[in-house]
Design a protein that fits this description.
Rossmann fold; six-stranded mixed beta sheet; 281 residues; single chain
Length: 281
Amino acid sequence: MSPESAERAAARSAGAPGGRSLAGRRILVPRGGALGDRLAAGIRERGGEAVVAPLTVTAPPERPDALAAAADRWNRGSYDWLVVTSAAGAHAFAEAGAKPRSSPVAAVGPATADALGERGFEVAVQPGRDFSARGLAEALIEALAGRERRRLLLPLSEIAGTDLQAALTAAGHSPERVTAYRTIPAPRDAELETAVAAGGFDAILAMSGSGAREIARRFAPIPAATAVVAIGGPTARALADFGLRAGAIAEEHTSGGLLAVLAALPLPPSDHSNRSEGHPA
């Protein structure tokens, strides 16, 4: 899964005023929690109808003892940096017993930084715009330029990619990965799948690699009139890997960026009168 995409994080409020109207549009938000709520609020503020239906959920790691041991090593000062790539990772690491320390912390983006702040961790480094593994690696490597080898702890999703570790290793540092949580499929919803197949949505939001996988698994083939909007290039590539094309890609990997590109998308005229009414907003 792409970090934030994952994701993802919000550099600004999803419901920022001044966005183009989504009146008459029905949008599937396949993500729960604060991000799903933020996106749904932004869609409704723009006059659209948001249906929040999470396709994935988080679960504890299969080896919680390994995460607890990493948290203990962090507390004892065994690492120079903490590097966090999702809000879920921030919360899972804190719940495993990790405490704020004087050692610096890097976050993949604003939502992750907010989650760390809720747990008392102060973020020293985060990307300015590219809230992805690549963007985080670039920002962190720049911050560490000229420094001797640093030991970095990365509490990640079980399915997170290896790009961040590889970049840090290539830069001469010692990243250590530990599984903080698992991303698993939510129970399937036959009613929702029928509504998508019947053309019941103008757009589906794709916000992570794991979300892209579930969109393909549950909804493909997606009706031609339904746009799939990806939060960033990594998620768009994940969609392609699963045989789906992103109708639009948010270059700014935030909920606000996703809403902006969604509002700019030339969607066809909506006619919900012939659509399934089985799945409520």
